[in-house]
Amino acid sequence: MTQVPSIAEEQLSTSLSSSKSVTLRIARFNPEHENERKFMEFTIPYEKWTTVLEAILEVKKHFDHSVAVRYSCRQATCGSCGMIINGKPRLACFTKISELDSDIVTVEPMNNFPIIRDLAVRFERLFDTHHKIKPYLIRDDSEITSNEKEFLQSPEELEQYIQFSNCIKCGLCNSACPTMATDSSFVGPQALAQAYRYVADSRDKGKDSRLKVIDDSHGIWRCHFAGSCSQVCPKGVDPAMGIQFLRGYLLGFRS
Amino acid sequence: MTQQDENKEGIGGMINPRRYGIERVAYLLMRLSGLGLLAYFIGHIYETSSILKGEVGWNEFLELTQTNEGHAVLAIVIAMCVFHTVNGIRVMLGHGGVGVGKPARPDYPYTPASQNARHKIGIYSAIVLAAIAMMYGLAVMFGE
Ligand code: SF4
Ligand code: FES
């Protein structure tokens, strides 16, 4: 009778093996018990296709299970695995070690988000600001009630906002934003881009109420069009574009 | 919550120009030139107020700008003024949604349309024009 390997044995046998290896530096910090961040180093073999997330999971499997990291889909869809990788906010599951072109890969928690532990950060504020801009269609009628017609939309109308609906709420844009670096009350590029997503939707009638929310001292006027949000967005949302269009309404450039 | 608790990057992160390309260099220069011009404006009001001390006081103060140091400061002011104006026009147009591209279904590798060549050219032009204006100013002031 063949012996079924235990999970631990299976995990040991699935260790990455390659001729190439990288030094993975992981920021360790537990705000409840420590005062400052420390780095732990691990040597991890990798292939051309190995992602940073896989390398972190390799550490968890074979060296230190206590490393705290949030992930789920492993395919740039759930927005859970944002972190600072070699100085820039990126998705760990969407970043291959080979493309970083470095023998050392340093992973740290995202900036401008409170740290829970190690690489895991709190998302409450991002979800709050996202909620604040009313991320749903606002109108009096509904497609759900019987006898109502489906809200029709032309492909051209869809094109106006479809790019912005790609947002996976990963928070990389908020982490790269220079305003968020100093102003924790700023509504942030993620929420502003989503405000534009709904304002640009031909089915929506809530433009005025959303503009009222963002026309605030910590609202859209704090954006200085540095564009870093768009440079780090892993889904091509281009928040900087949406924000400037949105401000165009308030400045009278658009109606 | 303290800054440490919030894990905010702080002013150091805000002004770091080494990440995210020339746009963040422009962002930093815009802030520095803005503060520099504000300081100059305050200094200028103080300087012109010396006229209250009569012609002698005014001339004495004006001599400050005739020194090498004074010329160097004025040359920097010229550069700040030109950069802030040219880049300011670029940013103002961008703020209204002008020249930031058109929404479109994004394709990998997701090059952001708002970070386009027109804006990069605008930034480089602002830097080059500021440098030319500064050099012209230096030539006029030191060439006397
Ligand atoms: S706009 Fe892009 S970077 Fe920002 S939360 Fe959405 S997907 Fe992430
Ligand atoms: S694990 Fe879901 S986005 Fe990376």
Task: Write up this protein.
- The complex is a heterodimer of chains A (255) and B (144).
- Chain A is α+β, with helices and mostly antiparallel strands.
- Chain A has 2 domains: 7-121, Beta-grasp domain (Ubiquitin-like (UB roll), Roll), CATH 3.10.20.30; 124-251, Fumarate Reductase Iron-sulfur Protein, Chain B, domain 2 (Orthogonal Bundle).
- Chain A is built from 10 helices and 7 strands.
- The relative contact order of chain A is 0.12.
- Chain B is 72% helix and 0% strand.
- Chain B has 6 helices and no strands.
- In chain B, helix 3 crosses helix 5 (68-95) and helix 5 packs antiparallel against helix 6.
- The chains are: A alpha+beta (255), B mainly alpha (144).
- Chain A binds chain B through residues 31, 87-88, 109-115, 121, 159-164, 166, 176, 178-182, 184, 200, 224-228, 230-238, 240-242, 244-245, 247-248, 251, 253-254, and chain B through 1, 5-11, 13-15, 19-21, 23-24, 27, 30, 91, 94-98, 100-101, 103-108, 110, 112-115, 119.
- Bound molecules: iron/sulfur cluster and FE2/S2 (inorganic) cluster.
- FE2/S2 (inorganic) cluster (FES) binds next to loops of chain A.
Structural key phrases:
heterodimer; A: 255 residues; alpha+beta; Ubiquitin-like (UB roll); Fumarate Reductase Iron-sulfur Protein, Chain B, domain 2; 2 domains; five-stranded mixed β-sheet; two-stranded antiparallel ribbon; 10 helices; B: 144 residues; mainly alpha; 72% helix; elongated; binds iron/sulfur cluster; binds FE2/S2 (inorganic) cluster
